[in-house]
Design brief:
Helices cover 15% and strands 32% of the residues. It is an alpha+beta fold. The strands form 3 sheets. It has a 5-stranded antiparallel sheet, with no helix packed on it. Strands 6-7-13-9-10 form a 5-stranded antiparallel sheet, with no helix packed on it. The termini are far apart.
């Protein structure tokens, strides 16, 4: 169990780190598409976010994050403690019959278009897109709309994939408003 006793003396720490100890903390991080939690180990005195914003003792926060079983500490960049969310959701994925995330091959073309390439798993019936839900996003197959975006429980998007589109390249496309 994480030690959160230092929260009482650090109200800003309490506000920022409280989501990490909630019963559904793993789902919150994944739902908000957070892959990494990064703690700078050393900063210039005038740029130290821990003292400037009153976050409290840096080592206490590092110890707290070390105690969370759903974050894995990575040594990716010197001078930083980097924690990876083991349950991170990719930008584009589907789910198998056991409700496990299966990443799909995709390429972001621009801010309004994502190209998804086969081969697709034989169980694909829904594509998830980890961006904030907007009803103007559509699923396009051979230049025709085959599905409109539906909201997920975390406010992202999902698209139903029709049977006839399951072997073709598919685009997720933002359809601008028309007047």
């Amino acid at each position: 169990t994480p030690n959160i006793s230092f929260f009482h003396a650090q109200p800003i720490s309490t506000q920022i780190l409280k989501p990490f100890v909630l019963p559904n903390a793993k789902q919150i991080l994944s739902g908000f598409n957070i892959k990494y939690v990064i703690v700078p180990l050393v900063e210039n005195p005038n740029e130290d976010i821990f003292s400037t914003y009153g976050f409290g003792d840096r080592q206490e926060i590092v110890n707290f994050l070390d105690s969370l079983d759903y974050l894995e500490k990575k040594n990716l960049i010197s001078g930083f403690d980097i924690y990876e969310n083991k349950d991170y959701l990719p930008l584009v994925y589907t789910k198998n019959y056991q409700d496990e995330v299966v990443p799909l091959n995709y390429q972001v073309i621009n801010s309004t278009k994502v190209k998804i390439s086969p081969p697709f798993p034989n169980f694909i019936d829904t594509i998830y897109y980890s961006q904030t839900y907007n009803s103007n996003w559509t699923l396009i197959d051979n230049k025709r709309t085959v599905s409109v975006s539906l909201p997920t429980e975390f406010g992202f998007m999902r698209f139903v994939v029709p049977q006839e589109s399951r072997n073709n390249p598919i685009d997720i496309y933002f359809q601008p408003q028309r007047f």
